[in-house]
Write a structure and sequence with these properties.
299 residues, mainly beta, Tachylectin-2, Chain A, five-stranded mixed β-sheet, four-stranded antiparallel β-sheet, disordered N terminus
């Protein structure tokens, strides 16, 4: 397991019931079989949690736009272990948290209103729990071909950042065409103009990503409107140096559905997810087993 966590075993006959009771209510699409196991609720301070990372058996998260420039360290039970300010950073619209062996990468890349022509990724050394303040190095990015406007139908928002080898992979949230565009850039401080490397036909809005550091498998979270309301999806696909092998992707609908905003690999078979305080009135953590993503492109 990536962070050395262990979980109490849930009897096979009860996961749906336990998940539904623990999460207080089943959301739209409640006829779907529940497949996200409840882990914990977050404190009210983290009701806008939008990112996840795991290091040294600690869960790390942050709040999104307009909140303070602070990293939060948590136990798996949801207890806040530390609050660490990033002294030279500003939280315009923080949306994602990626990591390698030595650094976190905070993606200040949210652009709902398509009013930002320059975005930021903060590169920070992984802090200790007793760190009082940390400083960030700036990775500044601009989209090649950027056009402002078209508030409800643009393709210049991004909420999903992952590390693959020596690169950062940023996945867009396209309201215009429903795809997710992949942008690849070095994970070193600098000023970059990024171009689309690949477009993934997810037909939904991508809100989170992670790439397993050993298997290089990609996991994405997205949402879209369906007949019964908003539905969350999870996607898995292999990656290579050439990009995402989308022809081999598999996916599943997440149930219960909510505003799932973050995902991180726990091990090769399971991921940890988090959601904001939205559908069920609180923010929290869940876990999902990869084997449950059993729908292929031809299903």
């Amino acid at each position: 397991m990536r962070a050395g966590f262990t979980f109490a075993k849930i009897p096979k006959a009860l996961p749906g019931l336990i998940c539904c009771l623990a999460l207080h209510a089943c959301s739209p699409g409640q006829d779907r079989e529940l497949n996200v196991a409840f882990v914990t609720e977050f404190p009210d301070l983290l009701e806008e949690s939008s990112a996840l990372a795991i290091a040294d058996e600690v869960v790390w998260t942050l709040n999104d736009s307009g909140n303070t420039a602070v990293l939060f360290a948590l136990s798996l039970q949801g207890q806040i272990l530390a609050e660490i300010p990033i002294g030279n950073a500003r939280n315009v619209d923080w949306e994602s948290l990626a990591q390698d062996e030595t650094h976190f990468f905070v993606a200040d890349t949210g652009n709902n209103l398509n009013s930002r022509d320059r975005l930021a990724i903060y590169r920070i050394p992984k802090p200790r729990l007793d760190s009082e303040n940390i400083a960030a190095e700036l990775i500044s990015i601009r989209y090649a071909g950027y056009e402002s406007g078209n508030l409800s139908s643009h393709n210049f928002d991004a909420e999903a950042l992952a590390v693959r080898g020596d690169e950062l992979w940023l996945f867009s949230k396209n309201r215009g065409n429903g795809n997710s565009d992949l942008y690849r850039l070095p994970k070193l401080p600098g000023d970059y103009v990024v171009e689309i490397s690949q477009s993934l036909p997810v037909r939904s809005l991508v809100t989170a990503a992670d790439i397993h550091p050993e298997t290089s498998e990609l996991v994405l979270i997205s949402s879209r409107r369906e007949d019964f309301g908003s539905q969350s999806l999870i996607w898995f696909a292999p990656t290579t140096d050439d990009g995402v092998d989308w022809e081999r992707h598999r996916f599943a609908h997440l149930a219960p559905s909510d505003q799932w905003e973050a995902v991180v690999w726990l091990d090769e078979a399971e991921v940890l997810l988090s959601h904001e305080s939205n559908t069920r009135g609180f923010a929290g953590l869940g876990r999902f087993q990869k084997r449950l993503a059993n729908q292929s492109p031809t299903d």
